[in-house]
Amino acid sequence: GMLGILKAGGAYLPLDPGLPKARIEAMLSLSRCSTIVGHERWGEDFGVHRYITLEHLDVVSLEPYPAVALSASSCAYVIFTSGSTGAPKGVEISHAALGNFLAGVGPAIGFTAGANLLAITTLSFDISLLEIFLPLCCGACVYIADEALVLDGFGLKNYLEQQPITHLQATPTTWKMLLAAGWSRAQDFTALCGGESLPTDLAAAIVKTGSKLWNLYGPTEATVWTSAYLVNTGLAQLLEDKQLSVYLGQPLANTELMVLDDRLEPLPIGAFGDLWIAGEGLALGYIGAPELTSGRFLTDASGKRIYKTGDVARWTHSGQLEYQGRSDLQIKLRGFRIEPGEIEMHLRLHPAIDDAAVVVREYGNDQRLIACVIYRENEEPTASELRSHLREVLPDYMLPQHFIAMHQFPVTASGKLDRKKLSASEEQTLASTQQSIDRQTHL
Ligand code: AMP
Predict the structure, then answer these.
(1) Most exposed residue of 10, 170, 235, 249, measured as fewest CB within 10 angstroms of its CB?
(2) 45 phi-psi bin (left φ>0, alpha ψ -120 to 50, beta other)
(3) 296 CB less than 6 Å from ligand 1?
(4) Which of 386, 387, 383 is CA-nearest to residue 396?
(5) What tens digit of pLDDT does each residue of 297-350 get?
């Protein structure tokens, strides 16, 4: 379907049928989508659009396509991500940016004909583009995993052991799952890891399997990946001892990474600042949202288009880029990009909720989404009520695992919500009186 849409001169927007209907509707209307290509079983859900059923395509009878008039700036695909203002935002990527990425990433990570890559990422995330298109562009082979395999560490381990797979791209969460399942021997194998910060102990564990390891960094807004860092296998011990960082690496072809201050001036080596990206990979913008676009994509004094990632980083004396964290509230949870603001806005729309704040909390080895809520007077909704309210509009990975009822939120000296204190104070309560929290406030 994807190849057909591109061949016909269209741009594709991946739709996960598991998403709430309201979210799919919002994505379709924002992107002004005209036609849906999909399996027969979902056809009825999308009445208003032209629906092409994959099962009924008679490929043989299709006429050869006429040449389509496309320019480098024509849109190739749109990927939606969580939006801090409450609605998902669609990142619009041009053929020029996609072509630049595919031409640059292969040589950068040494991906050539003969490679066998196992694709495990849902098409809703842009890193799936590397998995599908890079092998096809290089004369390599893509093996497409089914949904069940992706969630099953043991199944994935067995698959890797039985099939001649040479490359796998995954988030740190999936690599952890694979190692926990006992994946331990990986000669002539390349692990591509990205999507969130790669912890040093995980990097050490991966290189100890004998695998080559790349840390890949980049936001959807700059086309899949922006930079790549080859983790030196000889340094596993230093990584394990946390004496070394996993750096973000060198920018891909025709891409620039800059650490700037508030006036968009470059910061000196060693100083942490905002990470900006320039180059061919930058998105056209957010579809149907010019204000959001102009808030993130600026033009610098030299006329160069630059994108503010929201990441904080610094250059080291050895010329490496070191990642520190975010300057905003964006969260990465098991590889999923989440804006707490989007969940909070939908919670505030519930008639029983006065205010809401969503944070991430560590539970042992696990990270969970916690929604702290203040009820309106005489209201006391249950957790399942709040969850079903959110389920109407948000994907499952954005549903908080816990709800905590509070009388008021901690505030900073300037009167703003103090998220750090919010987590700290709950932590104490949760740790000390798990039982009573479960009964009283932990809905
Ligand atoms: P997404 O648009 O879903 O790809 O998310 C992009 C964001 O994920 C980046 O702005 C970073 O905050 C984070 N990210 C992606 N890859 C890495 C990485 N290798 N190291 C640290 N953070 C990463």
Answers:
(1) 235
(2) alpha
(3) no
(4) 387
(5) 999 999 999 999 999 999 999 889 999 999 999 999 989 999 999 999 999 999
Within 10 angstroms of residue 29's Cβ, the number of other Cβ atoms is: 11
Q: Does any ligand 1 atom lie closer than 6 A to the CB of residue 293?
A: no
Contact 325, 332 (CB under 8 A): no
CA of 203 to the centre of ligand 1 (A): 16
- Give the atom of ligand 1 at the shortest distance from the alpha carbon of 193: 19
309 lines ligand 1 (CB under 6 A): yes
Q: DSSP letters along 404-432, please?
A: EE-SS--B-TTS-B-HHHHHHHHHHHHHH
* CB count in 10 Å sphere of residue 412: 11
Task: Convert the pLDDT of each residue in 145-201 to its tens digit.
Answer: 998 999 999 999 999 999 999 999 999 999 999 999 999 988 899 999 999 999 999
* Residue type at position 201: D
The percent of residues above 90 in pLDDT, for the chain, comes to 71
Answer yes or no: are the C-beta atoms of 225 and 109 closer than 8 Å: no
Q: Is the pLDDT of residue 430 over 80?
A: no
Please report, as a single letter, which amino acid is at residue 7: K
Ligand 1: does its nearest atom lie under 6 Å from the Cβ of 339? no
- Strand runs labelled E in 47-194: 50-53, 75-81, 89-94, 116-119, 141-144, 167-170, 190-194
198 lines ligand 1 (CB under 6 A): yes
Q: Band of the pLDDT at 423, cuts 50, 70, 90?
A: low
111-144 burial, b for 16+ CB within 10 Å, e for fewer? Answer: beeebebbbbbebbbbbbbbbbbbbeebebbbbe
Check: CB of residue 280 under 8 Å from CB of residue 100.
yes
Q: How many angstroms separate the CA atoms of 226 and 184, rounded? A: 29
| Identity of residue 169 | Q
d(CA 170, CA 150): 10
* Residue 166 token pair: 């040479």
Is 275 strand, coil or helix? strand
The label of the residue with tokens 């320039």 reads 278
Distance (Å, whole) CA 300 – CA 265: 10
Beta strands 35-38 and 331-333 are: unpaired
